[in-house]
Amino acid sequence: MSHILHRQTSHHYPAAASAAGIVIRDGTGKEYIDASSGAAVSCLGHSHPDVLAAMRAQLDRLAYAHTSFFTTQVAEELADDLVGHAPAGIGHVFFVSGGSEAIEAALKLARAYFVERGEPQRRYIIARRQSYHGITLGALAVGGREQARAAFVPLLIEAHHVSPAYEYRDRRADERPRDYAERLAQELEAKLHELGGDNVIAFVAETVVGATLGAVPAVGGYFKRVRDICDRHGVLLILDEVMCGMGRTGTLHACEQEGISPDLMAIAKGLGGGYAPIGALLMQERIFDAVAAGSGAFQHSHTYMGHPLACAAALAVQQVIRRDGLLANVQAHGAYLSRRLKERFGNHPFVGDVRGRGLFQGLELVADRASKQPFDPKMQLHARVKRAAMARGLMVYPSAGAADGTSGDNVLLAPPFIVDAAAVDAIVERLGDAIDAATVERTGSRMQEA
Ligand SMILES: Cc1ncc(COP(=O)(O)O)c(C=O)c1O
Predict the structure, then answer these.
(1) Atom 7 of ligand 1 has which residue's CA nearest to it?
(2) Which residues have CB under 8 Å from 264's CB, separation 6+?
(3) What pTM was computed for the model?
(4) Chain mean pLDDT for the chain
């Protein structure tokens, strides 16, 4: 019997015993293709020799030094590296140990910025429904994943939500994409007027929505309008690129493809590629300047922030991505993955949509393609697909909540950046079998339902 409180108390988890490249092996020797990089984490795959060597060398030098006493060379080098490749205006970095911590830091630094500037009345955060920003209380409050929030609502800070940019379900048939983007922009504008623009701290959004919607990029022009609106009201734009960032969509930062630069940006997951827990908050220089010229301190710290081993891992991961030209591979094999998914699932009776960017692709599962009606959430179809995929030696990342925060199943694919065409073919084939098996199981006969 395990003494760990696992994610699901009734589920038996195989023990991961070893891993190399895009494959994880369990204790019985069974192999799984890691087609989701865990949760969009293992961007270089597993056991990358150059990352391991950098981590070993760091351990031999220094494993840990508390940040209230010291900085370290490796943390400084990683900060230089991140700022050197950051969106326009980003000048400083705050290190943390994961995505939720990066979002917490973003919310608090955004508030601290306005306190430093003498605008303490700013107290509201606006975010979007069907989003996921992490599991700690602040991140959960701004997130829009209803089933994760429900039990904790009495503990959450006040947060306001507007619609996600979710073309598949929300763009009206008679609406052009740009009109839909405008409608969403007007909704944000209206929310700002309702709250009073100068009472609002920030608008928070995933640049490409990950787990809740399943790799959904915004409709064209949306983020430019959001950037303009935030600027007009003096509201900070916080982009959450914890999942979609650090190369996953084919550019280092997903926002590069939107032509905008955020005020604050949370990164994690692919930053350290799973070799060590690390996240970071990137900030515009004017935000750093406000703190430096004001109180001189951001009242927010963690014991393990800037951990040298994590920084060494992240620095090595970023250097390997550049040295090996892996963003080009993300673009090329992302396009190939998208094509293969569309070929396999384009006419599938229970796949309503295939979408994504780069090696960040999602399928939305629907009970009826014409009406886009989701499966009954009680069916837990996402969990069934995951089980069926694992049985076939495939790791994918299905979740629920796409349609309304609770119902609507999607399957997220986010293979490592080193994936090749043969691996993409194997992933699509196994996923097809898994979805067929899971839907047959649910509906009695898939063909009969179709
Ligand atoms: C977009 C996004 N933000 C934040 C988080 C939280 O990150 P973590 O699980 O590292 O705390 C996640 C995790 O999946 C995420 O996908």
Answers:
(1) 99
(2) 106, 109, 110, 202, 236, 237, 238, 239, 281, 282, 283, 284, 287
(3) 0.97
(4) 96
